[in-house]
Design brief:
It is built from 7 helices and 2 strands, in the order βααααααβα. It is mainly α. The chain has one domain: Fumarate Reductase Cytochrome B subunit (Up-down Bundle), CATH 1.20.950. The protein has a two-stranded antiparallel ribbon with strand order 1-2.
């Protein structure tokens, strides 16, 4: 019995995107855990939330400046393309197997959007017990309470559903399609089938990493500034 032929790997996810992904996962998990604990842990809940804010700001800019497959332009698909993908009508140059496919792209944008809303509502929230967002003093009491209601209830359940959907998709690809989506987000490289040998790699050089580091520090500085507005 012959050994399976290893597929050539292409750099899909640059290092800044990988660091963003795993740091965001840790920050969201930390925010959820500290919210569940409550009490004094809410101080860390706010810190985790501000970390998520800084990461989302970074990703918004990196979606314009990052590696080929990290840019939003690489996974913004028209409705017609999504329907064609669902029908299995693939065309040369689609490269759906490289970065985010049309369904995965919808999931990513939904998750980032809901996280942005959670951050925005958290910044102005006030549960009148253990937590007050750093920007709460800039909104009316009614708006602050409304934001708190969304942040702790509807928004939380929507976010949880999207996270579980994300995990379910990873498991589905692993079990049904024998495709590992986790390893490429760790190493950056993804095996590409011969039919997609023309897949262009993402730039992941010292120059782009330095640019990402400066951008990350700027976003972190902005988060610190926002936190100080609570005083």
């Amino acid at each position: 019995m012959s050994e399976p032929v290893a597929l050539p790997a292409v750099r899909i996810w640059d290092l800044p995107t990988r660091l963003f992904h795993w740091t965001l996962a840790a920050a969201v998990l930390g925010a959820a855990g500290t919210a569940w604990i409550g009490g004094n842990a809410m101080v860390w809940h706010m810190r985790c939330g501000l970390t998520v804010m800084a990461l989302l700001l970074f990703r918004a800019v990196w979606g314009l400046l990052g590696g080929r497959w990290s840019r939003f332009a690489s996974f913004i698909y028209s409705p017609a393309t999504v329907l064609r993908y669902l029908r299995g009508e693939l065309r040369p140059g689609d490269h759906f197997e490289a970065g985010h496919n049309p369904l995965g792209a919808l999931s990513v944008f939904a998750l980032l959007g809901v996280l942005a809303v959670q951050v925005a509502t958290g910044l102005v929230a006030d549960d009148e017990i253990a937590f007050r967002g750093p920007l709460n003093r800039f909104v009316s009491t009614a708006r602050g309470l409304a934001a708190t209601g969304w942040h702790a209830d509807i928004g939380w359940w929507i976010l949880l559903a999207l996270v579980l959907l994300h995990i379910a998709a990873i498991v589905f690809y692993w079990v049904r399609k024998q495709t590992d989506l986790i390893r490429p987000m760790l190493s950056g490289d993804k095996p590409i089938p011969p039919a997609a040998a023309d897949t262009p790699p993402s730039e992941d050089s010292g120059r782009t990493r330095a640019m990402a580091a400066v951008l990350g520090l700027a976003c972190a500085g902005l988060a610190v500034w926002v936190a100080r507005l609570a005083n």
